[in-house]
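Regression report. Comparing outputs from two consecutive submissions.

Submission 1:
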Amino acid sequence: MVYPKVSVIIPVYNVEKYLNRCIDSVLKQTMQDFEIILINDGSTDKSGEICDDYARIDERITVIHKRNARVAAARNDGIKVAQGKYVIFIDSDDWIEPQMLQEMVYKAEELKLDLIMCDYKKRSKHYEEERSQPIRGGFFSKEDIQKELYKCLVMFEHIEFPPTISNWVCLFRLEFLIENNLCYDEDIHYCEDSILGSKVIYHANNFYYLKGHYYYNYFYNPTSTTNTFNEKKWSSYLKINDRLQDYFGNAKDFDFTRQIKINMLYFTLNELGQIKYSNQDKEARIHNIKSIMEHPKVKGIFHEFKLPDVNWKTKMITLMVKYKLATLYHELIVNQAIQKNVMPALMKSEQTK
């Protein structure tokens, strides 16, 4: 039996408006040695029918219909049935450039890579923006990974996710994932990419970054649940931080303690930032702000913790979190009455500790 070079795994859930664009972008690749695995994750619109229509016209397309279990489980289902040497994940409302598979597979084959990553364009109906990672491009040996990428494996010092946070810009060698038991945590429904991305870099024997090659198109939807406040998302964030602590907290080859704390700080700032977009009244907002700031995991960030080198506004908010100034945060940030003269007072309090 002849196996495809690449398994393209596409979780599908209620995306009838965008699904054709996504699948067509794969079918138009300059390299045609692939299979497409469509995981219809309990769609209630016509997405499942669209998947079946494509499968009828192209034997390289497999459709799996299942009850809704979210994207992490869908991607794992794709990994289980994938037959390609490499796997790539595409979100069903996104699309890829025609040369993506060919260019990434060529480099992966040439250098016998475990992992290769490209850049992407963030797009909406009104704009597009090229996105790149603040690391060098090119080849990374295991030694290079340890020297250059372990320091940002969980989180960058400037409170940003690691380079591999967007798994859909990565091409993985399937055997590498299986050998290291690398898959998605199915009980995490928000930011599920972050854990896998960190684990992959940690285990990879080599890595290549196609910096400046914008092969993936990420469609940004500002109304998505990723960009709004809800308690389930906060629970997922807490769970992610626990998993990172369990996996990397006792690593013998690098101390990831500070990165794990910065990761928790990132989630905290992110969730606090979404509160201003909620429809809750002032009392409910302040209650939620307090519950976040007073959470034991949030308090634990600041034990023997030096503030990251970030802009004054982020430092100010971080200090509000540290000192649990929920009402002040609501007035200055949620009500957008930001006062620069608050910063010196907060820094003075910090210096007297």
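Submission 2:
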Amino acid sequence: MATLLADGYYLKAMENYPWELSEALENLNYTLSYDPEHAGANCLMGQLQMHYLKNYQAAEEYFEAAMASDPEYVCAWEHLVILYIHQKRMDRAQKVLEYAQRIPTMNRTFVLWAMSRILETRYELSLAKRYLKAAFGEVFSWEEQDYLNAELKRLKVKTKAWKKRKQR
């Protein structure tokens, strides 16, 4: 019975996120009170902590709790990598990404995009572009393709700016 209640509150939280954050937060708290190991609720709470409350330590703990309860919960792995990238903890992001690739349902497009971002921060821009181009072969939706096109365009502009800067 508690699992059914937890899932019901989780679905309400999903319905409210990200438009009604207070409602989402309330429903997530109910979900986690009924089932503290609910992977989806922990992951969504981590996203809320990361993107809106800017509480990165709490976000990391929620993502790790989601992964502990369900080691193949891809959403938590992806968001933990994004968190580490935002925090400029690239070595940690790369280690998590390398481990996450072993999960059969891991989104290969995400893996290639994240590696591109990691390489970009190290100013390995040509290699970063190669990873982005490789991601096109893994795309399954127009939205992903449009996003990758925008990322590639952004990276090309950055490469030109970097080359001009180096020439000075």
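Expected: both submissions complete independently.
Actual: both completed, but the second showed a warning that disappeared on reload.
Relevant detail on submission 2: The two ends are 68 Å apart (CA to CA).
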